[in-house]
Amino acid sequence: CFLGITFAPEGISQSLRISGIVVFDTVKDSPAEAAGIRGMKNGTIGDVITGIDGEKTKSSADIFRVLDKRVPGEKVALMLQRARRQDDGSVVSNDLVMNITLGTVRPPGMEAAQKAALSER
């Protein structure tokens, strides 16, 4: 199953005392990107995954354990913390739940190769 999330090294969470898994980036055209998951940008922390399907997560291994039991097309509920800066400069964190439909893994360039193969027929 494919979410399309690249996780930041766990040392980042530990050094910043963040409870959860920091999203480093999302894969272009992935289920995570379509759902609006936010990665790090210009050194600013993006979303932090705190759970999946009601189970708390402490490491990416926790996420993969849940995904190993799923098939593409099923939905998972990602529990997130998303920080935002208020007008006065202070930062607040919102708890969110995003339901994401899992995809299949597509190696880079696969679609172009498939189109080329179909055009040769």
SSE diagram, text form:
Blueprint: E1 5-7, H1 10-15, E2 21-26, H2 31-35, E3 48-52, E4 55-56, H3 60-67, E5 75-85, E6 91-101, H4 110-119
Antiparallel strand pairs: 1-2, 2-3, 3-4, 3-5, 5-6
Helical residue percent band? 10-25%
Shape: globular
The termini sit apart by 31 Å
The H/E string reads EHEHEEHEEH
What average pLDDT do the residues reach? Answer: 85
Q: Which band does the percent of strand residues land in?
A: 25-35%
Structural class: alpha+beta
Can you count the helices? 4
Defining key terms:
alpha+beta, 6-stranded antiparallel β-sheet
Short characterization:
The protein is α+β, with helices and mostly antiparallel strands and 121 residues long. 24% of the residues lie in helices and 31% in strands. It is built from 4 helices and 6 strands, in the order βαβαββαββα.
What can you tell me about this protein's structure?
By secondary structure, the protein is of the alpha+beta class. It is 24% helix and 31% strand. Strands 1, 2, 3, 4, 5 and 6 form a six-stranded antiparallel beta sheet that branches. Strand 5 and strand 6 (91-101) form a beta hairpin. The longest helix is centred in the last third of the chain and has 10 residues, at 110-119. It is globular and about 45 Å long. The model is unreliable at 113-118 (pLDDT under 50).
